[in-house]
Specification:
Order of helices and strands: HEEEHEHHHEEHHHEHHHHHHH
Protein name: Sulfotransferase
GO molecular function: sulfotransferase activity
Enzyme class: transferase
Keywords: Transferase
Bound molecules: adenosine-3'-5'-diphosphate
Number of helices: 15
Domain Sulfotransferase: 57-309
Radius of gyration: 19 Å
Structural class: alpha/beta
Shape: globular
Amino acid sequence: YLSEEDEPSHDFKALISSLPQGKGWPSPPLYQYQGFWYLPAVLQGTLACQNEFKAQDTDIFLATFVKTGTTWLKALAYSVLNRTRYSSSSQHPVLTTNPHDLVPNLELSRSSLLTNLPSPRLIATHLPLTSLPDVPPRCKIVYLCRNPRDTFLSLWLFAAKVAGKSELPLAAEEAVELFCEGGCPYGPYWDHVLGYWRESVEKPERVLFLRYEDVKEDCGSCLKKLARFLGCPFSVEEEEGGVVEEITELCSFGSLSNLEVNKRGVTSLGTETSAFFRRGEVGDSRNFLTDQMVEKIDRVTEQKLHGSGLSF
Ligand code: A3P
């Protein structure tokens, strides 16, 4: 979230110098704020949105930990909400615009961009529930989680890909170690997931909790759940007319990753769009991580999620 002034304020510099500092992925360092780890630029945007962002009752937040399928969720939710405007699929914005430019991120975008979104505003965030700015209880939040092994793998490879050419990527062992200690952007992963999970159990009308693995297995059912939750369920005519399958196909990994805009584009925040599409499979971590690494991540998962009713 950037106000019109981009320069870090004196107060921000003072705050950041007082925060615990941790190792970056591979650089710059991360800072711990309200129990989670942030890159300096993200922290600046986080503080600005906590102070200045004005939520509207109709806002819809798409919340995710990094690398858990944010791009996919953005495309799906955008397509569900706008399905009557773009019934002719050759005109669909998903075909020509990367999902990150269709659904801006709360803590990373310019304030004016968010203010000017049409209502209901669809806004993405990686912030943990406890660090969201004031969000009225009527706002809907959709959380998409992914199993920690695949999330770790995707994050580790993404960090190496977008790092500067001169930077050495983190060794896998060290990255697993840091991830398990919580030290990665927006980490600890488990605290992030649990915050939204508990809220979804307590207030299912406020938070819809989805899993990447379930969307992969049965995207149609998840889309129907999503549309009901957002107050725009698919009609019988739409279901019979194949609208759910059309959205599933439009947003599938194969279709999105083959679009020109996602093969050779750059997002408005400067990331090559192809970096958001690697393999899009469940269980790929098995092909990269040693048994010891998997066991380590699984052990932390068991400890952290014990008694929560959530498991992977
Ligand atoms: P992999 O690295 O395992 O392939 P995010 O969007 O949160 O950055 O997450 C990126 C992960 O989601 C990557 O996982 C990416 O390939 C996968 N992904 C992107 N689009 C997808 C889609 N349409 N369907 C399934 N997975 C998708």
